[in-house]
Design goal:
Length: about 110
């Protein structure tokens, strides 16, 4: 249904949803996140559906890259506390992806 992609084009994505899950749980299941802009986003996971459309799970202004009082990216991605993580796409409904993503973490 969806698969992790290191090469998908994410041009034009925008936040469409959110998931609440421990960053450490995501790292255990999918490995370390890809680094991003080093400012608002410290890490992301890009998935594609069967049509190649990207769905991106990422932090948004959650680390000390954005605000010095926030945790470092390393602290954030090793945290067991579940913050709200953004789910972005190209204006596509994200509910199906979010359900699949959470199922992968429960079954992983």
């Amino acid at each position: 249904m969806f698969k992790l992609s290191r090469s998908a084009d994410t041009t034009g994505i925008t936040e469409m949803g959110e998931v609440e899950v421990s960053p450490a749980e995501i790292v255990r299941r999918f490995g370390a996140p890809s680094g991003v802009d080093g400012y608002k986003i410290s890490g992301e996971y890009v998935f594609v559906d069967k049509k190649g459309q990207p769905f991106v799970v990422h932090d948004w202004k959650s680390t000390n890259l954005w605000d010095h009082s926030f945790p470092t990216p390393e602290e954030f991605w090793s945290s067991e506390e579940p913050p709200e993580l953004s789910v972005s796409s190209r204006d596509l409904e994200t509910n199906e992806f979010e359900m699949w993503f959470l199922e992968q973490l429960e079954g992983g």
